[in-house]
Design a protein that fits this description.
This protein folds into two domains: 3-142, Fructose-1,6-Bisphosphatase, subunit A, domain 1 (Fructose-1,6-Bisphosphatase, Chain A, domain 1); 151-260, D-Maltodextrin-Binding Protein, domain 2 (3-Layer(aba) Sandwich), CATH 3.40.190. Helices cover 35% and strands 26% of the residues. It contains eight helices and 14 strands. It has helices spanning 3-23, 42-58, 91-96, 163-172, 174-177, 189-198, 211-223, 250-260; strands spanning 30-35, 38-41, 63-66, 82-89, 103-110, 113-121, 126-131, 135-138, 141-142, 155-158, 182-184, 203-206, 227-229, 245-248. The strands form three sheets. Strands 3-4-5-6-7-8-9 form a seven-stranded mixed sheet, sandwiched between helices. Strand 6 and strand 7 (126-131) form a beta hairpin. Helix 1 runs antiparallel to helix 2 and helix 6 (189-198) runs parallel beside helix 7 (211-223). The longest helix has 21 residues, at 3-23. The structure holds D-MYO-inositol-1-phosphate and calcium ion (2 copies). One calcium ion (CA) binds at residues 44, 67, 86, 88-89, 91.
Length: 261
């Protein structure tokens, strides 16, 4: 089985489980992490354990970096080949059913760059896959970023994230918020980023993401013709210890970069 076949299988199976978990979300136990709004559900843990086991069986020896259960440590050798997993991105949306806006994200990273990435959006039954140099697909159909070039008419996702980041978003993102045609904040990095890849959205900004939040979507956006960088415009190395992410089609990326800085 190739890595790509593996990725598609793992995410398709995970999506089936997530749909079942979502129906049973009120029964799932919750553990608090660093504060009252930072928690993990038994659903997140089930999906992480499932994919961890699949990787160990199919690619023994491959390292996994994942959000939960102590797997969140960055590799000592930052160029090492490893899988990067967010078992559920958008845990709040998943847990409360506010809107079924969440996804499962898995990437294969080499030398700090994703070479394969996939995001399952279980509640709309979509699978987005990208392979370095090959393109990006949603359910087998090629996807492309939008060609909108005016920020004044663009739909931009400003991910407000947790309270600690909010002031930073407001200060740093001030000019974008006051210029963009429309602003969204859906509470799932993978949903916001994949919307840029498919052209449903035009841009995405987050001041403080972790590698598992964006590793797969970064590749999906770039293979769809978009540009992804740090907030100062520099190229992303997944394990460079930096957190900001700016993604958009190339024209809007340049304009947003100007406004951010
Ligand atoms: C969160 C989501 C959210 C973003 C947070 C992330 P989680 O991931 O992607 O949109 O603003 O910074 O932590 O915790 O739901 O996996
Ligand atoms: Ca996440
Ligand atoms: Ca998560």
């Amino acid at each position: 089985m190739t890595e790509r076949e593996f990725l598609e299988r793992a995410l398709t199976d995970a999506a089936v489980q997530v749909r079942d978990l979502y129906r049973r979300r009120h029964e799932l136990s919750i553990q608090h992490k660093q504060g009252p709004t930072d928690f993990v559900t038994a659903g997140d843990l089930q999906i992480q354990q499932y994919i961890e086991k699949l990787i160990a069986e199919s690619f023994p020896g491959d390292r996994l970096v994942a959000e939960e259960q102590g797997l969140d440590r960055m590799p000592d050798d930052r160029d090492q080949r490893c899988w990067v997993l967010d078992p559920i991105d958008g845990t709040h949306n998943f847990a409360v059913g506010l809107m079924p806006t969440f996804g499962v994200s898995l990437a294969l990273v080499e030398a700090g760059r994703p070479i394969l990435g996939g995001v399952a959006l279980p509640m709309i039954d979509q699978l987005l896959i990208a392979e370095q140099g090959q393109g990006a697909w949603r359910d087998g159909q090629r996807v492309h970023v939008s060609d909108h070039d005016l920020l004044e008419q663009a739909k931009i996702e400003i991910d407000f994230s947790r309270l600690a980041n909010r002031r930073l978003v407001l200060t740093r993102g001030h000019d974008i918020i006051n210029t963009a045609g429309q602003i969204r904040s859906q509470g799932s990095a993978v949903v916001g980023l994949c919307a840029v890849a498919t052209g449903d959205g035009d841009g995405y900004v987050h001041p403080s993401l972790k590698p598992w939040d964006y590793a797969a979507s970064l590749l999906i956006v770039t293979e769809a013709g978009g540009k992804v960088s740090r907030l100062d415009g520099t190229e992303v190395h997944i394990f460079d210890g930096l957190n900001g992410i700016l993604a958009a089609n190339p024209t809007l990326h340049a304009r947003m970069l100007e406004l951010l800085n």
